[in-house]
Amino acid sequence: MRKTNCEVIRQELDELALGETISAAAAEHLRECVECREFNEKQTRLRQIVGGLGTVSAPPDFDFRLRARLANDANGAAFHFWPLARRSLAFVAVLLVFVIGAIVVRNVFKRPVQNNQLATDQHSTAPEPRAVPTVEQKEQPNPAPQIVVTSSDKPSQSIKGERPPRIKRPLVAEDFSNTRAEVINGREPSGAFEVLPLDSSLQSFKLSLDDGRGNARTIFVPTISFGSQRILQTANQYASKRDW
Amino acid sequence: MNTLTTINELGFAPALQQEMLEDTTSDHALLEATRTGDQDAFAELVSRYRNQITSYIYRMTNDYDGAVDLAQETFVRVYRAADRYQRSYAFSTYIYRIATNLAISELRKRKRRKLVSLTGFFQQNDGAEAKEFNPPDARPLQDTELVDTERRSAVQRAISTLPEKYRAPLILRDVDGRSYDEIARILETSEGTVKSRISRARGFLREKMRAYL
Q1: Is A53 within 8 Å of B152 (Cβ atoms)?
Q2: A70–B46: do the CB atoms touch at under 8 Å?
């Protein structure tokens, strides 16, 4: 009960302005309670010290500097919104960095998963020897050699973003470089190179350029092969260093 | 009336007397005049409040140069927003609210800078920043003036260690002597909250200033 009374009196003392008369009840209580009297003395002393800090004066050139500032502001009124614009630009830049970063991270984590998926699919669908119903293949003494590749990647059953543990699993690949592509139109070829007759436009392409300083540069564009055509040597292999 | 007597007694010229009487023009009227482009009215407003605002911001930030800059920024904002000023509350409340917001923003900026500053680890503190309160030397000093100076400095340092939500109401009440009602309007909070924050702030200060009480 007494404690509650002390709290009420202290609150009253706290809310009074310095020098303001305290109520009769509070005065009575202060006469009886030593703790509250001590509290009141300390509180009054503290408020006197804090109140004694006084006012700090502005510097003498305050008005002059203010006028200069206002004049500058009036001249640069067009730039009032520059801080806001700058903040917006910074926000957009940060957002862009995050988006680009997220895309890069996504691609980095996604690529091995896709490759692994392909490898797994290729492995699981078991590449059986492909039967090409052509005469040429029958004539070939050596069928396409099978190459066994050891992959260090793991099948893609991992959670996205998690790097899969390394499991060595053999992959089977088949070399089709010596075999001919399937004939799509159903017409049986009569000769070894009559599968897809090439016209002259499909021959390799050579172009010489002069850069105007007496340096001649030659560009070779080899014929593109789609499978049944014989693969030509890359012309660049025999070109001089100046040719590209 | 007393003012008139004083001016007459001083024997100023009639024009100057008129000029001095205009000091009694209300802040609202001065701001209205500023709105219409009267630069002198704005200058009068500045001269009325420059010391109060500078002092208040200085007590809040404990940095005089920064306080002067922020006080100027306060007046710049008043000038720019003169068209939007509403007479629903006193001009002093309005200008103190702007000053409080600027001071609190500055304190938060400093806190952020302090958080991100790595060079601070290798630099000596120049005393401009609010730092942990250091208890004073308890030995008595002979010179009274020195004691007062030391005490004021200790109070200022102790205030600068208070959390900003306690600092502003304490300064407005105990240093500037404003009423609870006005403080509540400046800080845009209830009177009860102001009273409780001031009480807590004094409690903190009592602990920190024990050696001086």
Answers
A1: yes
A2: no
